[in-house]
Design a protein that fits this description.
Shape: globular
Structural class: alpha+beta
Distance between the termini: 17 Å
Largest sheet: 5 strands, antiparallel
Order of helices and strands: HHEEHEEE
Number of strands: 5
Helix content: 25-40%
Radius of gyration: 13 Å
Strand order of the largest sheet: 3-4-2-1-5
Number of helices: 3
């Protein structure tokens, strides 16, 4: 994984998590990674909350990947590839299994 665009090829959190590690660990040691999954307007999304080992490393990651920070954590949204046949039951969200 070399870019945010590559992450958008992931179909689910189980695939996304190692891809995030591969992409983000080149900027420093990952201290925390939490993923909230959500359904929004028929799209499955992963809202990723990330902390690295230093603020300087986080700044480099944010500048390189074009993502931001909210509440002290690097935060970005990844649209997951989902089957076209998935029914839209309205907005919903749930935390993915926590842990680095």
């Amino acid at each position: 994984m070399n870019s945010m665009q590559d992450l958008r090829q992931c179909p689910d959190v189980a695939t996304l998590k190692p891809a995030l590690h591969a992409l983000c660990s080149r900027f420093g040691r990952i201290e925390r990674l939490d993923i909230l999954t959500a359904m929004h307007e028929g799209k499955q999304q992963a809202i990723c909350f990330l902390r690295l080992d230093s603020p300087e490393n986080e700044q480099t990651l944010m500048k390189t990947l074009g993502v931001g920070k909210f509440g002290g954590e690097v935060v970005f949204v990844v649209d997951l590839v989902s089957p076209d046949s998935q029914e839209d039951f309205g907005p919903s969200s749930q935390w993915a299994d926590s842990g680095i």
